[in-house]
Amino acid sequence: MRHESQLPVEGAAVRSALYAVLAEAFAQPRGELLGAIRSGELARRLLEWTDRLDPPLPGPVDWAALADAGPSDEALPTEFTRLFDPGTSAPPCPLHGGLHVGPQMTTMEEVLRFYHHFGLGPAAGSRETPDPLTAELEFLHVLAFGEADLCSRGEETTSYRLGRRDFIARHPGRGDPLLRAKLERQQPMAFYSE
After folding, report:
1. Pairwise CA distance, residues 149 & 160, whole Å
2. How many CB atoms lie within 10 A of CB 66?
3. How confident is the model at residue 186 (pLDDT cuts 50, 70, 90)?
């Protein structure tokens, strides 16, 4: 149930938790994640946090689709590879923002500047690029968590709020509509369609 007079700290905490679950949902669906999708646990957690958003999501969600891992344990991982995994060639729906709004190097550099501004960066020795959707969602999780923490202590949250707003506008807000359009053309399984 949504709270009509949600306090700023509660709103930031809800967004933080939701970003974390969304980052998990866009990871390779194997092991525990695949089990959480198949059992409906992932959909339940998404529902729990989206139900607490204030304002609410603008449209309906097909919760059954978010619990549909397909007819076998390999169906969803195979679909993930088909749609998103770069492998040896370019996937039809890459999860890297720079491949949608490029040039990729410029996008990656800008994403890194956001991360560094908030004291974050890639793990030492990491060979991952900084712009996959999962990393961007994890970054938004950290920003919303920091906002909730500062708010709970009565401290100023403007830098975290504005950082989150600007990051969304410059990165997932620009790339995700393009990803969504590419995804629709691929006629994905219900989980990825939703």
Report:
1. 10
2. 22
3. very high
For tokens 């525990």, what's the residue?
32
* 185, amino acid identity: R
DSSP, collapsed to helix, strand or coil, labels residue 96 as: strand
Q: For residue 27, what are its two tokens?
A: 């990871």
Burial (CB count <10 Å: 0-12, 13-18, 19+), residue 159: middle
CB neighbour list of residue 134: distance below 8 Å, 6 or more residues apart: 23, 26, 27, 95
Cα–Cα distance measured from residue 80 to residue 73, given in angstroms and rounded to the nearest whole number: 12
Of 112 and 8, more confident:
112
Q: CA-CA distance, 27 to 34, in Å (whole number)?
A: 10
Confidence of residue 43 (pLDDT cuts 50, 70, 90): very high
Q: Which residues is 96 bridged to in the sheet? A: 132
- Helix/strand/coil for 58: coil
Task: Tell me the percentage of the chain whose pLDDT exceeds 90.
Answer: 77
Identify the top-confidence range among 5-9, 119-123, 146-150.
146-150
Check if the beta carbon of residue 54 is closer than 8 Å to that of residue 167. Answer: no
pTM value surpassing 0.70: yes
Residue 132: helix, strand or coil by DSSP? strand
